[in-house]
């Protein structure tokens, strides 16, 4: 099974890119982030014509997450994280896809930091920690996938010294990600490529993509009962170079039985 995650940075604006990539690579399951569309504006028909069923949790102008599945039954198990009844941002969607539980994540950016946006990010992380612990108690295999807005180590960021005060690279944010992984999750790309520079995001500014001045902020975390099923993983880096594309590239893993 091939599972991908892709921050599309506006699903309707990037729909031609998304459909082109789906046709070329045909992943079995896709987690999408940053839809930037309310529920009624999700392009369900185009997604279905591409061969995918879909669940989505939209929001006007901002955020939004979706899970697509090709020829696999998909059943929603939750949307949003417990712990803050006033949080109306569309950042988490969870579904049982076949026999795997998948949580699609668009974690808050947190900038400018310090400030209320960083505080919200850290509180959201705490809520994710609590829910992730509950998921690990299940017999069902679990994948947490998406845009975590964290560069876990210096290896995950071009010129780390330039990012020391950014909310994606602050010590407390990296520690929050580390604490999450240490619950028992496997960082799929790092498990296979422990020493390689791998980026999933390149800013639109300063010719970042051509200079390969990137960040690794899109991640796959696998529950312990999936660790040995991981066969391969990668980044479809070339998609970032397409016309009118997202500033993220799709990331994928291949699981065996």
TrEMBL record:
It holds the Pfam family Exo_endo_phos. The keyword Acyltransferase does not apply. InterPro entries: AP_endonuc_1 (IPR004808), AP_endonuclease_F1_BS (IPR020847), AP_endonuclease_F1_CS (IPR020848), Endo/exonu/phosph_ase_sf (IPR036691), Endo/exonuclease/phosphatase (IPR005135), ExoIII-like (IPR037493). Keywords: Hydrolase, Magnesium, Metal-binding. Residues 4-248 form the Endonuclease/exonuclease/phosphatase domain. NCBIfam families: exoDNase_III, xth. This is Exodeoxyribonuclease III. It comes from Autumnicola tepida. The gene is xth.
């Amino acid at each position: 099974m091939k599972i991908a995650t892709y921050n599309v940075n506006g699903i309707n604006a990037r729909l031609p890119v998304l459909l082109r990539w789906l046709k070329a690579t045909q992943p079995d399951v896709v987690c999408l982030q940053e839809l930037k569309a309310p529920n009624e504006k999700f392009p369900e028909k185009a997604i279905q014509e591409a061969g995918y069923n879909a669940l989505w949790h939209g929001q006007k102008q901002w955020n939004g997450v979706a899970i697509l599945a090709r020829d696999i039954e998909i059943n929603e198990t939750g949307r949003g994280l417990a712990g803050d009844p006033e949080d109306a941002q569309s950042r988490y969607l969870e579904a049982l896809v076949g026999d795997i539980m998948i949580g699609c994540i668009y974690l808050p950016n947190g900038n400018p930091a310090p400030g209320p946006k960083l505080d919200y990010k850290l509180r959201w992380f705490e809520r994710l920690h609590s829910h992730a612990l509950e998921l690990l108690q299940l017999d069902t295999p679990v994948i947490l996938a998406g845009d975590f807005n964290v560069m876990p180590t210096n290896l995950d960021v071009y010129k780390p010294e330039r990012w020391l005060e950014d909310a994606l690279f602050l010590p407390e944010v990296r520690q929050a990600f580390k604490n999450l992984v240490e619950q028992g999750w496997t960082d799929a790309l790092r498990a296979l490529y422990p020493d390689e520079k791998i980026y999933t995001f390149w800013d639109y500014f300063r010719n970042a993509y051509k200079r390969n001045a990137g960040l690794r902020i899109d991640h796959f975390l696998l529950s312990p009962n999936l660790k040995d099923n991981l066969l391969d993983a990668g980044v479809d880096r070339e998609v970032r170079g397409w016309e009118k594309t997202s500033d993220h590239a799709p990331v994928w893993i291949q699981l065996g039985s």
